[in-house]
Backbone:
């Protein structure tokens, strides 16, 4: 995609689609009025007929019939003026890219973007995210080649900031769409081995340190959780450790941990058919980690970043782990297995324990961990929990800047008894009430006193029907939040 600033007259811009913006409740004025007049009042007439009043997520499109040089005009809603933010512009970019399919290769934006640094990058980011499609396995469909040229006309963007804004938006969008691609791959392709090979490729290209542990190394280290969950599968498990080291002094060390269940059948506590569909997305936390590590060296934060992934399938094979089994995790704690379909927290127990061995300053994990979190918060919001309010608040702030929804759930001490075990240090499941919270409490057993935050992304990681601001399938949720957090 080629992005340029332009000082052209709106009526003379040659493009497939000219995009204009309108705040909710405001009369048509300024550039919109000028274009409307050139089109004989068609914009205002169609807006009235379709009852479009500038609401965010809505718009009207008309063919110009050659009255101006743009082939079509799209008037989009920017919502209430007092609530205008960079996220509104990100959504404007997503909305535009979706409406541009499949006929617009060239787009021009004709509404003002003030000089605030976040605004231009958010709009560019939205365009890149909104144009995403996963169609590599379609053989008969004619594939849309996507938007190729984007101009910003009368945008208010300063030339000296534009290159920087474009670079950041390109990097963060690349990372998100890369994670989406990984999650959308069928499980026969995206195995733990393939995930580890992808990590090696990233490390080689981005000059990161890379360690991959196979089954023998895991046995030597005592990664009993990952080994137990992997036993039912023919696919060998992998533990992935990528490391980014900045040049110069290191301010702190952070571990970003991802759950990498490349397919989750539920194990011996097998899922019903409908619940098993989309379980290729149970490695969305791992995809987020790889998306972040793919671009972190280009963003150059002055911190050391460890990307850690426990990768395996959870299958009901002849050697599969069983309810009532007792597992010993890397840190020596024992786990009573109540439900083999609560495997994510078990494989994370080893990854979090490994992060502790690295003596990092902070740990953040991402996992499609519980259906309970989806019940509580819906499809579009992740739950955040942890043992350090300052860290949690930084994650929440980063998510807000990134345009990703997170909500803090309480670590209610009265629920801790739910995962107490009579025969081991902890049970892997409590009752069905407060399930997202007790899952986080389970993970807390493996982080000690290190500041730690847990993101349960089970809802927003994979949205089968899509959403206003997300594609169908994988969303890459968490990538932008974690990058913002690391840069903070």
Residues:
């Amino acid at each position: 995609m080629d992005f340029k600033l332009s000082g052209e007259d709106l009526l003379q811009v040659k493009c497939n689609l000219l995009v204009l913006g309108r705040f909710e409740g405001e009369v048509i004025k300024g550039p919109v009025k000028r274009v409307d007049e050139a089109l004989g009042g068609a914009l205002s007439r169609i807006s009235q007929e379709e009852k479009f009043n500038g609401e965010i997520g809505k718009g009207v499109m008309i063919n110009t019939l050659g009255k101006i040089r743009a082939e079509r005009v799209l008037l989009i809603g920017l919502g209430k003026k007092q609530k205008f933010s960079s996220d509104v512009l990100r959504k404007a970019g997503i909305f535009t890219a979706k409406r541009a399919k499949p006929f617009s290769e060239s787009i021009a934006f004709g509404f003002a973007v003030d000089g605030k640094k976040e605004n231009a990058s958010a709009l560019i980011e939205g365009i890149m995210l909104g144009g995403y499609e996963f169609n590599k396995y379609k053989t008969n469909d004619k594939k849309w080649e996507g938007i190729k040229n984007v101009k910003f006309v009368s945008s208010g963007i300063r030339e000296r900031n534009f290159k920087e804004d474009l670079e950041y938006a390109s990097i963060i969008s690349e990372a998100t769409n890369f994670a989406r691609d990984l999650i959308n791959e069928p499980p026969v392709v995206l195995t733990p081995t393939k995930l580890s090979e992808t990590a090696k490729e990233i490390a080689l290209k981005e000059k990161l340190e890379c360690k991959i542990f196979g089954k023998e190394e895991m046995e030597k280290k005592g990664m009993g959780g990952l080994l137990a969950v992997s036993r039912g599968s023919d696919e060998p498990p992998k533990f992935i450790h990528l490391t980014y080291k900045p040049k110069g002094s290191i301010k702190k060390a952070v571990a970003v941990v991802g759950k990498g269940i490349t397919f989750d059948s539920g194990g011996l506590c097998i899922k019903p058919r409908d619940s098993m569909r989309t379980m290729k997305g149970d490695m969305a936390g791992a995809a987020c980690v790889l998306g972040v590590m793919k671009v972190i060296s280009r963003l150059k934060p002055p911190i050391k970043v460890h990307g850690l992934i426990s990768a395996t399938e959870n299958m009901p094979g002849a050697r599969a782990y069983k309810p009532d089994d007792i597992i010993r995790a890397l840190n020596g704690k024992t786990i009573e297995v109540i439900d083999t379909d609560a495997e994510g927290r078990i494989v994370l127990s080893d990854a979090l324990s490994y992060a502790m061995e690295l003596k990092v300053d902070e740990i953040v994990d991402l996992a499609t961990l519980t259906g309970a979190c989806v019940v509580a918060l819906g499809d579009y919001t992740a739950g955040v929990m942890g043992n350090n309010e300052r860290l949690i608040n930084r994650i929440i702030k980063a998510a807000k800047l990134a345009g990703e929804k997170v909500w803090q759930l309480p670590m209610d001490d009265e629920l801790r008894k739910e995962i107490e075990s009579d025969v081991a240090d902890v049970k892997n499941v409590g009752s069905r009430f407060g399930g997202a919270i007790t899952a986080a409490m389970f993970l807390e057993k493996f982080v000690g006193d290190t500041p730690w935050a847990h993101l349960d992304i089970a809802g927003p990681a994979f949205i089968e029907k899509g959403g206003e601001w997300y594609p169908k399938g994988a969303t890459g949720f968490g990538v932008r939040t974690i990058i913002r957090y690391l840069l903070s």
In short: The domain at 173-487 is CATH 3.40.630.10 (Aminopeptidase). The radius of gyration is 24 Å.
